[in-house]
Amino acid sequence: MPSLTRTGAHVPHLQAALCTLIGSAGGYTYLALLCRDIDAVKGSDRSPMREADAIPETLQRRIAKGVVAYQMSLQPRLLVCSAALLPSSNPGPAVSTQL
């Protein structure tokens, strides 16, 4: 029976399983919070993008939509996705795939 020591061949598999578990838990938590946030929206809530779309002048409407899109992209629930896509500055040691 192989051991799960640092010199054993199964440590990268254990680390991969742990990273998968942590990533899955984080993803499911984010999805649950996003669904809760979306379910909290009511029909009477203000919609800045629709208000910007109602501006009659084309140039002002496009500028207003750009400003609203920028403001909406700074919401914390959207920043989580953006932060997850940023590359890590410390990727850690390289794992050999040779057996």
Overall radius of gyration: 23 Å
Helix fraction bin: 55-70%
Helix and strand succession? HHHH
For this entry, what is the oligomeric state of its chains? single chain
**Model regions low in confidence, pLDDT < 50 over at least 5 residues:** none
What structural class is derived from the secondary structure elements?
A: mainly alpha
User: Rough shape?
Assistant: elongated
The main pleated sheet reads as: none
Counting DSSP E segments of at least 2 residues, the number of strands comes to 0
Strand content: under 5%
Write a structural description.
The chain is an all-alpha fold. 62% of the residues lie in helices and 0% in strands. The protein has 4 helices and no strands. It has helices at residues 11-39, 48-53, 58-73, 76-85. The longest helix has 29 residues, at 11-39. The protein is elongated. The mean pLDDT is 77.
Summarize this structure briefly.
The chain has helices spanning 11-39, 48-53, 58-73, 76-85. The protein has 99 residues and is an all-alpha fold.
